[in-house]
């Protein structure tokens, strides 16, 4: 798979996705082959592109041109203003990209940002986001969301739910599944033979012995004890406020957090532009830039492609790690 290009789905074409795809190609050239799936008419004016009929053809496209696997959309995509009529095609592009990867025609999938409200309103999109839709396309695979940058990997156990619902949703089964999928993903997709995991507590000071909540002793600690008995290197539950300084980060390969912001605040603080969203547990590799559609700056030529470039590079690294794991 190392000699296959990465598939990049267009995402919401009225956002910054088309613009950063062009910028990523300009920055990477032919050193990291990828092809963009979308409507060529949605790319910025003056884009140097070359349409391809098959993913393998992307390998021969000159560095100064963006390889494009054309997918027709019904309408134009004015920057900052998603068209409901285009929602169905956005979804189709994701499914098409997954088909190409699962058939072995592309090395991995990188997804440009979608706008969930636009997809729901325009096509009745029934999923909370990319991750859940990809899991469904993969036959209902159990997955977890990881955010990664060179200095930190974090996994939120609960994701897009109100903070008030976290204690009820944080079950031993969910936590154990999250840790197991993360542990397996670090071995298979990151080449770590014996991953070290750190698990945060839910409450301040990890509950302080029950003085500030009992989820640590009632829910979290028993799960960690079972996993340690199996030989998994997992520390915790740890106070979240002391887990992310440099010395603490050196002691683990990934941090398992209890809720969305507990995980995302530290990584966005460390590397706002270079964070990558990774879906662990899928039968194929999927990465994505860790930002949204940015309608407010779409079409202005100012969008930063750093996160997309990092996502493409990480997809390639994960491809190599998965190949080595199979060897």
TrEMBL record:
UniProt pathway: Cofactor biosynthesis; pyridoxine 5'-phosphate biosynthesis; pyridoxine 5'-phosphate from D-erythrose 4-phosphate: step 4/5
SUPFAM superfamilies recorded: Isocitrate/Isopropylmalate dehydrogenase-like
Keyword NADP: yes
Residues that bind substrate: 130-131, 268, 277, 286
InterPro entries according to UniProt: PdxA, PdxA_fam
EC code: 1.1.1.262
Free-text remark on how the cofactor is bound: Binds 1 divalent metal cation per subunit. Can use ions such as Zn(2+), Mg(2+) or Co(2+).
Source species, domain of life: Bacteria
Transmembrane segments: none
Localization per Swiss-Prot or TrEMBL: Cytoplasm
Record-linked Pfam families: PdxA
UniProt keyword annotation of NADP present: yes
Note from the entry: The active site is located at the dimer interface.
Subunit field text: Homodimer.
NCBIfam families associated with the record: pdxA, PRK05312.1
HAMAP family in UniProt: PdxA
Family: Belongs to the PdxA family.
UniProt name for this protein: 4-hydroxythreonine-4-phosphate dehydrogenase
Lineage: Bacteria, Pseudomonadati, Pseudomonadota, Alphaproteobacteria, Rhodobacterales
Gene that specifies this protein: pdxA
